[in-house]
């Protein structure tokens, strides 16, 4: 029987001609002065041969992704992607996207956002949403001063999912509207999962600092934005999007009962999509909000039911999570010209 590493190595060698360069990854830690502590982060990049073959983030519920740990970076200049995870997510929850974009030729950096990541949740502190944009700007500072700097082009995409989709929009110049968001939650009557989460955590949106919420968190280095099922856009007005002057890709997941109310930017949802008519809007169906997570193993759904966890492996009938992932990678890579 082959050892796991040998099997992975043979798999990499057998696909080298069709998947060159491969995705390399390095785990790093970045000091975040605005939090007064460091952040766990990872850099994903197009890699040459070498490094240690690994199935990244494999567990009992989710399949992992084949990568080359600590491999030498490929030569050339490559666009940068600042990738932000959703509320309660982490670097591993979007590993397929990080690796997929790196294999297509991008340098991706993502972080575990303090106060809104797995095992590090403070709902009230996390609602100071601008710190997430600061996290990504800090990560870009680190990347541009690192050993990866010579391989970076001036093209910088801010990308993210759910709460991370809002982070990407913030980096691109969209401002929050606290009064609008609080009013939308008042009117949601239980339909918004995010509003319900805030209510259960005892967070009163009306009591938050509007100046802090509505501030400008844009980063002038960002040249394009990709937001996948973004949150926090309810109540945003045309005035709040005037700072968005870069190409925007908006991706929605699911329709009808499969569409997550809190992330619905359509005319029958928040209407945010109509505020950015310059955006390329893509709706993926059949799908739901959780289709963004890694592919689930056959026992994944039952394990989550047994643990009374969120049904993140329960997909709409007829959907194909692998195909959804491939479509999202193609859309982001296309915007990057890869």
Q: What form results from the Cα inertia axes?
A: globular
What class, by secondary structure content?
alpha/beta
How are strands sequenced across the largest beta sheet? 3-4-1-2-6-5-9-10-11-12
Domain count: the total is 1
Describe the structure.
Keywords: Signal. InterPro entries: AB_hydrolase_fold, UCP031982_abhydr. It comes from Tropicibacter oceani. Residues 1-19 form the signal peptide. This is Dienelactone hydrolase. The protein has helices spanning 4-14, 95-104, 123-126, 130-144, 163-172, 178-188, 193-200, 210-213, 272-275, 300-306, 321-336, and strands spanning 22-32, 37-47, 52-56, 65-69, 78-84, 107-111, 116-117, 120-121, 152-161, 224-228, 248-253, 280-284. 47% of the residues are buried. The strands form two sheets. A ten-stranded mixed beta sheet has the order 3-4-1-2-6-5-9-10-11-12, with helices on both faces. Strands 7-8 form a two-stranded antiparallel sheet. The two termini are 38 Å apart. Mean pLDDT is 92; it is low at 1-20. With 338 residues, the chain is α/β, with parallel strands linked by helices. It is globular. The protein has one domain: Alpha/Beta hydrolase fold, catalytic domain (Rossmann fold), CATH 3.40.50.1820.
